[in-house]
Amino acid sequence: MRRLAAAIALAAISAASSARAGGMECWVDNGAVVVPARFAQPGFGDVTGDFILDLSAPHSQLHLTTAQGDGMGDAAQARGMLTLAGRRIAASLAIANLDARQWGFPTTLNGVLGADVLGGYMVELRFAPCRLTLWRRAPPAARAEATLPVAMVGGVPTVTATITDGIKARRGPFALDTGAAGVRIVAAHARFSRLSARVDPLSRDQPPARLAAMSLDGQVFRDLPAALQDDAPDGLLGGIGTDVWSRYALRLDLRRGQLALISPPALAGVSAPRSSRSPGSSRRAAGRRARGR
């Protein structure tokens, strides 16, 4: 009888913990946050594998090659259930050719998960080690270095920042770009002073330029990697990538319109530390080194 009572108590504790938060390991490849996820559409097989987590993407997408391999044919949309960080989320993924997004990655990417699938959660993203946690309710308290107001522009969460090339300055909304490395600036607002024909001005993973400075809530970041952007929703000045965000742990509350920037040590003990990359990612990294990438 005592053993039965203990088993029931442990099950109850586990269920309560699950109701509070769902978390998972993630990793960063080519400047982008990558997460394992599963997408199941009724009548078709499950898609399980790696997805880019890009908060600057207004619509989540499923790679055309993946969709066709799953028998979805020429459908424009896939509707089903997304399992991410221990959560089951009803999701609609646009089917698109994502060959350009997965260039340089050591494995096939099944799609891009954007802000549209995360609106019901407090999103916590750490970088060292990389971990994504989705909270239904307020997470344990942690002192933030800054709390920034977040506005939705074109379906993506943005914060206000000021950029300068040392002579001119621009101030406006920047997307939370967890799918690229540097600061990306809409091409209508910037140009390169020098550009080699061998350089990709739109590179997400190897930004070819340097930005003199960016100011975010009074914090100044100097000499940041930068690239141009040609796919931003109307109204954006650009996007701020993982080169900046990886200095913090992020807590994004889309319902309240807030982004908390937390020093990673302030989250010590909130949940158990995990490896910064999945076991599969470690094997892929070793393979990439062997191939000389």
Question: What's the SSE blueprint?
Answer:
Elements: H1 2-20, E1 21-25, E2 27-29, E3 32-40, E4 46-53, E5 61-63, H2 64-69, E6 77-84, E7 87-96, E8 109-113, E9 122-127, E10 130-135, E11 144-149, E12 151-153, E13 156-164, E14 169-176, E15 183-186, E16 209-216, E17 219-229, E18 238-240, H3 242-245, E19 249-253, E20 258-262, H4 279-290
Parallel strand pairs: 4-8, 5-7, 14-18, 15-17
Antiparallel strand pairs: 1-10, 2-3, 3-4, 3-6, 5-8, 6-7, 9-10, 9-19, 11-20, 12-13, 13-14, 13-16, 15-18, 16-17, 19-20
List keywords for this structure.
293 residues, mainly beta, Cathepsin D, subunit A, domain 1, 6-stranded antiparallel beta sheet, 6-stranded mixed beta barrel, 20 strands, disordered N terminus, disordered C terminus
Describe the structure.
This protein is mainly beta. The protein has 2 domains: about 20-140 and about 265-280, Cathepsin D, subunit A, domain 1 (Beta Barrel), CATH 2.40.70; about 145-245, Cathepsin D, subunit A, domain 1 (Beta Barrel), CATH 2.40.70.10. Helices cover about 15% and strands about 45% of the residues. The chain has 4 helices and 20 strands. The chain has helices at about 1-20, 65-70, 240-245, 280-290; strands at about 20-25, 25-30, 30-40, 45-55, 60-65, 75-85, 85-95, 110-115, 120-125, 130-135, 145-150, 150-155, 155-165, 170-175, 185, 210-215, 220-230, 240, 250-255, 260. The protein has a 6-stranded antiparallel beta sheet. Strand 3 and strand 4 form a beta hairpin. The protein starts with a helix and ends with a helix.
